[in-house]
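Hey, can you fold this one?
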Amino acid sequence: MIDNRRVLAVVPARGGSKGIKLKNIRTIGGIPLVALAGVAASKVTTIDRAVVSTDHDAIARVAEDAGLAAPFRRPESLSGDKVADWDVLQHALLTMEEIDQTQYDIIAMLQPTSPGRTAGHVETTLRHLVDGGFDAVWTVSQTDSKGHPLKQLVVDDDGRLDYYDPRGATIIARQQLTPVYHRNGIAYVFTRDCILGQKTIKGVRTGAVIIEEVVANIDTELDVEWAEFLARRGAGT
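Sure. Predicted structure:
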């Protein structure tokens, strides 16, 4: 609990993955991704219940070995690659409230594909939600200026190059750019009303926790190599 509010952590880990087969049990530093999420969740004392939402028995077994509960299987209708996070979270929340015969006030989503997560990241995000009176809080990382929207270009069907945003023509130095941020998957936290009432993962009042450390977010084999590098570097510091 945090301030007398019960916390449910959900680790979404479906079996299907077009980029990397069974990505959620791919290992980083010798530990499956879903297990890394479970280990981090187990160290967060304010989490009352931590579960995996999966449609795959092998993933469920790995998750359980790491301390995550797997009391249900995600239905096929929620197992495709175009299913929204909100649908998965709503299903997990309602299912666990029925199983546990209790109400959860805060839901945390911990994506296995962000292996750089620490318990401290999650605790900070939960505290920010409660103290700030937010409907949701997402962890984010600052985007490198090379990827800033005002520095992006488009090529039309005739092969002509142009700015994605016409304001890009006025940018001479990166100091002119207002910082922008991207999701890093380390932690998302939501109030129950945000999920069930507002029916969104980005509520009316959504806050941000900026993660200063370099973290990986795994979609490709190159991302796996990057995550392995970061894990080795962390182990050596």
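The longest helix spans residues 85-100. Let me know if you want another pass with a different chain boundary.
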